[in-house]
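User: I'm new to structure prediction. If I give you an amino acid sequence, what do you actually give back? Let's try with this one:
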Amino acid sequence: ELFFLELGLELKRRRMRERAGIAFATTDKVREAIREVLPFHPTSAQKRALGEIVADMRQPSPMRRLLQGDVGSGKTIVALQAMLVAMENGYQAALMAPTEILATQHYLAARKLLERSSRRYRIVLLTGSLDEDRKRHTRGLINSGEAQLIIGTHALIEEKVEFDRLGLVVVDEQHRFGVLQRFKLMKKPRQDGTEGAEPDVLVMTATPIPR
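Assistant: Good question. You get back a string of structure tokens that encode the predicted 3D arrangement of the chain. For your 211 residues, that looks like this:
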């Protein structure tokens, strides 16, 4: 049984490697953008995790990676650095959290860190409790590509939300989302209606529960 399980997983991995993804570049410009926003010297574990994530992001096939760490271990700062790689390559990054409180916390933390940068990134927050006018305006920024970093709740997977050039999807507290919910965000249509390369996906959790 274990042999057939491993065989099935390897076949899935092989099919994944055959799909078209995005080969992100990590130039000196990208590295400088990351250094600018770091509020502290990263730990060796954070550097190792980011190195593995970025190595996957350089590949032409889509990344599917789990970032696991205890609460307070710095998962969010690692994810933000990965999102900077996508944004510096001209793509959008989306972070989906299970609750409005957590999404708002991520939004405020990201905004504070990115204020340290000499570059001007447009960050937006999309949650279910926003009034309809605000939602419409935010969706417009996402559709047009003006919003580079999009943080939100399940509102991100609503049909009305279309991305211009989605390059990286980050899902926080992955065990709080169903497989199909995550899949919907990964497969979001482009604003022009065409299907481009699949975005990279990074899921984060302190309590990894297989789905």
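You can read the tokens as a compact description of the fold. Here is one thing that stands out. The helical segments are 2-18, 28-37, 44-58, 75-88, 100-114, 132-144, 179-186.
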